[in-house]
């Protein structure tokens, strides 16, 4: 959640809970308590489901996204390192088991049967988790690409 969204959420909470203010403590203390709790809840949610933002990217990674958005061709050789860093950031948005699965299948190139032997998971679970993990990564990438267009 961006800082602006968090600020708006705090203002809405203060406004909607104004009838709960008893006057026993100064208004500033009451408002700051709502703000602290809202921020702590947002941080906890961020740990559970991290979000990748455009501001988190380096200039090279931004250029890779812009290139991917405008062309369907291959990346330039100099952009491959930035593309790898971007992939790592997208993988960080996944839960550890999903990240392991995507690494085994798509980075290391193991087959589904090999992943089954490594993890002990059944084949249908591997396929479903991989599908959902790729979908989450795609969603994060699409969000970043939307930020590039004015």
Structure described in brief:
With 150 residues, the chain is mainly α. It contains seven helices and no strands.
Structural overview:
The chain is mainly alpha-helical and 150 residues long. The protein has two domains: 3-48, Rna Polymerase Sigma Factor, Chain: A, CATH 1.10.1740.10; 54-148, Arc Repressor Mutant, subunit A, CATH 1.10.10. It contains seven helices and no strands. The longest helix is centred in the C-terminal third of the chain and has 26 residues, at 123-148. The chain is elongated, with a radius of gyration of 21 Å. The mean pLDDT is 78.
Radius of gyration: 21 Å
Q: Considering the protein shown, what is the CATH homologous superfamily of the largest domain?
A: Winged helix-like DNA-binding domain superfamily/Winged helix DNA-binding domain
Question: First CA to last CA: what distance?
Answer: 20 Å
Query: What would you call the shape?
Result: elongated
Helix tally equals 7
What is the CATH topology classification name of the largest domain? Arc Repressor Mutant, subunit A
Helix-strand string? HHHHHHH
Low-pLDDT runs of 5+ residues are none
* Helicity level: over 70%
Number of domains: 2
Identify the notable features of this structure and list them briefly:
mainly alpha, Rna Polymerase Sigma Factor, Chain: A, Arc Repressor Mutant, subunit A, elongated
List the helices and strands and how they pair.
Layout: H1 3-16, H2 27-48, H3 59-70, H4 80-92, H5 96-107, H6 112-119, H7 123-148
Helix pairs in contact: 1-2, 3-4, 3-7, 5-7
């Amino acid at each position: 959640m961006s800082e602006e969204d968090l600020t708006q959420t705090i203002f809405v909470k203060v406004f909607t809970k104004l009838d709960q203010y008893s006057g026993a403590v100064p208004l500033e203390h009451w408002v700051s308590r709502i703000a602290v709790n809202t921020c702590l809840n947002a941080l906890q949610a961020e740990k559970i489901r991290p979000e990748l933002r455009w501001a988190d990217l380096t200039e090279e990674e931004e250029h890779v996204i812009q290139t991917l958005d405008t062309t369907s061709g291959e990346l330039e050789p100099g952009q491959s390192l930035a593309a790898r860093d971007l992939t790592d950031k997208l993988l960080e948005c996944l839960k550890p088991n999903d990240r392991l699965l995507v690494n085994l299948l798509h980075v290391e190139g193991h087959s589904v049967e090999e992943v089954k032997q490594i993890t002990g998971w059944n084949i249908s679970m591997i396929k479903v988790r991989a599908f959902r993990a790729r979908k989450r990564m795609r969603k994060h990438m699409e969000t970043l690409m939307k930020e590039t267009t004015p």
